[in-house]
Amino acid sequence: MGDLQTRAGELSRRGFLIGSAVAVLAFAVACGGGTGDGGAVAGGATIAHKYGETTVPVNPQRIVSVGYNDQDALLALGAVPVGVFDWYGDYPSAVWPWAQDLLGDGEPAIVGSAGTGIDIEKVAAAAPDLIVGTYSGLTQGQYNMLSALAPTIAQPAGVADYGVSWQDQTRILGEALGEQERAAELVAGVQNQFADTADAHPMFAGKTVLVGALKGPGQFGVYGPDDPKVRFFTELGFVNPPVAEQLRSTNFAEISAEQLSLADVDLLVWYASEGFGDQLRTELDRTPLYQTLDVVKDGRAIILDDEAAQAMAWSTVLSLPHALDNIPGRIAPLMD
């Protein structure tokens, strides 16, 4: 995630803006009593994460998601959050069409956005008994403030911020909610769909793929192996070229047209948020060197910028089936 056109906040998401840390923490402690449990009764699962371990309440009822896409997994597991983080998309309650049916009559409060960061006061106002942020970049300071309100599950340890896989996210939240069996069923169902789709498209196996995006006017970037959009293709049988493998420490890096010309790949995928595909096309058209690439001349480059592309980018147990129903069939003719 790092393309210019991705929702003004995606590039800045690594620095949540919270305002005055001292004033907000004082508010958090006042609301939560500084106990770290928000008044809830603990005794449920103990979840390990980047900042330690959190014991969650049994059967939490008021869950606030400060993760970029955690609401999808919560909804899939039968929990309607009372607060959500608005990543992008301009949909009611920050819930995309593939998850709206599960939202039902729920109207979770928006407790932050990619452009402004987490609003601690809004989180507190939602009176949570559990806060989750598995797909996030929570800092220690943010975690401290949130955990003063209620038990808080941050991003997993041992993976990059915003690097949790959809499988692990679903399992972690399933354990937190006491829905381990349901989580396992959900994961298995989507994994089976990946396997079936890969079997139906044997031309994907072993082919190299590079996923890029527009970073700025005349500037392009590529995603690393741990980015969800890249994982989507590797789970279908594609493999990463050396230029992508070098990005293990980050999920997105700028690349020049000259460097791109050295990346001999079988498939070049350009990702854009909805409404920004034309801007990307314009920038590519005005880059002469790009037009000389073999992958471009051979018709093995594609721009993905519709709702299915966003489902791929969200990469959740709810969104991925939509992406799998729509994207592989558009890629297959390019690989014949």
UniProtKB/TrEMBL annotation:
Pfam families recorded: Peripla_BP_2
Cite the entry's keywords alphabetically. Signal, Transport
Q: Which domain of life is it from?
A: Bacteria
Q: Name one GO cellular component term.
A: outer membrane-bounded periplasmic space
Q: Which residues form a coiled coil?
A: none
Its transmembrane ranges are none
CDD domains, sorted: FhuD (cd01146)
Q: Can you give the residue ranges of the Fe/B12 periplasmic-binding domain?
A: 62-335
Q: Where is this chain primarily localised?
A: other
Q: Under what name is this protein listed? A: Iron-siderophore ABC transporter substrate-binding protein
Species for this entry: Rhodococcus xishaensis
